[in-house]
Protein backbone atom coordinates (compact mmCIF):
# COMPACT_ATOMS: atom_id res chain seq x y z
CA UNK A 1 0.00 0.00 0.00
CA UNK A 2 2.84 2.42 0.69
CA UNK A 3 3.25 5.39 2.91
CA UNK A 4 -0.08 7.24 2.91
CA UNK A 5 1.40 10.49 4.25
CA UNK A 6 4.08 10.42 1.56
CA UNK A 7 1.46 9.92 -1.14
CA UNK A 8 -0.68 12.75 0.25
CA UNK A 9 2.35 15.04 0.32
CA UNK A 10 3.16 14.25 -3.29
CA UNK A 11 -0.43 14.97 -4.33
CA UNK A 12 -0.47 18.24 -2.38
CA UNK A 13 2.75 19.39 -4.04
CA UNK A 14 1.32 18.63 -7.49
CA UNK A 15 -1.82 20.60 -6.66
CA UNK A 16 0.28 23.53 -5.47
CA UNK A 17 2.38 23.46 -8.63
CA UNK A 18 -0.77 23.54 -10.77
CA UNK A 19 -2.57 26.18 -8.72
CA UNK A 20 -2.59 29.82 -9.77
CA UNK A 21 -3.43 33.21 -8.37
CA UNK A 22 -4.47 33.59 -4.75
CA UNK A 23 -5.21 29.87 -4.48
CA UNK A 24 -1.57 29.02 -4.99
CA UNK A 25 -0.44 30.48 -1.66
CA UNK A 26 -3.00 28.37 0.20
CA UNK A 27 -2.06 25.27 -1.78
CA UNK A 28 1.65 25.80 -1.07
CA UNK A 29 1.00 26.15 2.66
CA UNK A 30 -1.09 22.97 2.65
CA UNK A 31 1.65 21.13 0.74
CA UNK A 32 4.32 22.32 3.19
CA UNK A 33 2.25 20.95 6.07
CA UNK A 34 1.81 17.65 4.26
CA UNK A 35 5.56 17.42 3.62
CA UNK A 36 6.29 18.07 7.27
CA UNK A 37 3.86 15.38 8.38
CA UNK A 38 5.24 12.85 5.94
CA UNK A 39 8.89 13.46 6.75
CA UNK A 40 8.84 11.93 10.22
CA UNK A 41 7.37 8.63 9.05
CA UNK A 42 9.31 8.14 5.83
CA UNK A 43 12.21 6.02 4.69
CA UNK A 44 15.51 7.63 3.68
CA UNK A 45 14.58 7.33 0.01
CA UNK A 46 11.22 8.97 0.62
CA UNK A 47 12.91 11.74 2.62
CA UNK A 48 15.16 12.52 -0.34
CA UNK A 49 12.10 12.81 -2.56
CA UNK A 50 10.32 14.96 0.03
CA UNK A 51 13.34 17.28 0.09
CA UNK A 52 13.13 17.61 -3.68
CA UNK A 53 9.43 18.42 -3.40
CA UNK A 54 10.24 21.05 -0.76
CA UNK A 55 12.70 22.63 -3.19
CA UNK A 56 10.00 22.72 -5.86
CA UNK A 57 7.66 24.49 -3.45
CA UNK A 58 10.40 26.96 -2.53
CA UNK A 59 10.73 27.85 -6.21
CA UNK A 60 7.02 28.70 -6.35
CA UNK A 61 7.29 31.30 -3.60
Poorly predicted regions are none
The Cα radius of gyration reads 11 Å
The overall average pLDDT, rounded, is 93
What multimeric state do the chains show?
Answer: single chain
Tell me the overall shape.
elongated
Q: Beta-strand percentage?
A: under 5%
Provide a descriptive summary of the structure in words.
The chain is an all-alpha fold. It is 82% helix and 0% strand. It contains three helices and no strands. Helix 1 (4-18) packs antiparallel against helix 2 (22-39), helix 1 (4-18) packs parallel to helix 3 and helix 2 (22-39) packs antiparallel against helix 3. The longest helix has 18 residues, at 22-39. The radius of gyration is 11 Å and the shape is elongated. The protein starts with a helix and ends with a helix. The mean pLDDT is 93.
Any key phrases for this structure?
61 residues, 3 helices, elongated, mainly alpha, 82% helix
Task: Give a brief outline of the structure.
The protein is mainly α. The protein contains three helices and no strands.
Helix/strand layout:
Blueprint: H1 4-18, H2 22-39, H3 44-60
